[in-house]
Amino acid sequence: MAEAVLFDLDGTLIDSEPIWAAANTALVRSRRAEVTDELLRSLSGIDATVAMRRIHRYYGWTGLDVHADVAFVQRRVRESYARGVHWLPGARALLGSVRAAGLRVALVTSTYRELVRFVLAEAGPGTFDAVVCGDDGHRPKPDPAPYLAAMDLLGLAGADCVAVEDSAVGVASAHVAGCSVLNVAPIMRSDLAHTWVPSLLHVGVDSLHGAVALWDNREPVAG
């Protein structure tokens, strides 16, 4: 049985991927280049600075300030969040159900804390027992460090936790940390996930316990 649920944020709880895509597109077009769907897909789930370095390599940009470009993109996203955060269908209801069932809840995101605070304000106090952000000083996903940090804050082991992730990068991070993993996405993005659903509308507390049961009965993938 799960004792805690560890949620990713972007693309899992909130519909923010189009916002990040628009912000990155604005940066690319400011340099008279065109963004590609291939590039945008490759940025899913990864740390903002890592993503920006990937963008610079993709376009062959040299001698430009990566951190200034990260700030440009973050400012665009912050402006959008200030107008309101768009929760994905089923996200608020699932958070409420998990809390009502007495499970611990953590947020484990690559997004930096300055932006996460908008989500925390809308979620309300007490929604999350632990929050791990992309600028907390640990190695980013797909490294297991973010999930290990969340489990440390909760005082739990991976066997006690189920992670809910949309990206293959996030699934890998949670899997290597020892969590059972529920992949929520229109199509399953990683065979490291222990179960998959197309939307949080299809997820309840029983689904989360079921992910742990599947993990308990499956040989871990060597990592």
What's the structural blueprint in terms of helices and strands?
Elements: E1 4-7, H1 17-30, H2 37-42, H3 48-59, H4 66-82, H5 91-100, E2 104-108, H6 113-123, E3 130-132, H7 145-154, E4 161-165, H8 168-176, E5 180-184, E6 195-197, H9 205-216
Parallel strand pairs: 1-2, 1-4, 2-3, 4-5, 5-6
Helix pairs in contact: 1-4, 3-4, 4-6
In summary, what is this structure?
The protein is α/β, with parallel strands linked by helices. It is 45% helix and 11% strand.
List keywords for this structure.
6 strands; single chain; six-stranded parallel sheet; 223 residues; disordered C terminus; alpha/beta
What does this entry look like structurally?
This protein is α/β, with parallel strands linked by helices and 223 residues long. 45% of the residues lie in helices and 11% in strands. The protein contains nine helices and six strands, in the order βαααααβαβαβαββα. It starts with a strand and ends in a 7-residue tail after the last helix.
Low-confidence stretches: 218-223
Radius of gyration: 17 Å
Estimate the helix proportion, in percent.
Answer: 40-55%
How would you sum up the global shape? globular
- In spatial order, strands of the major sheet run 3-2-1-4-5-6
Tally of helical segments:
9
Following the backbone from N to C, one meets helices and strands in this order, namely: EHHHHHEHEHEHEEH
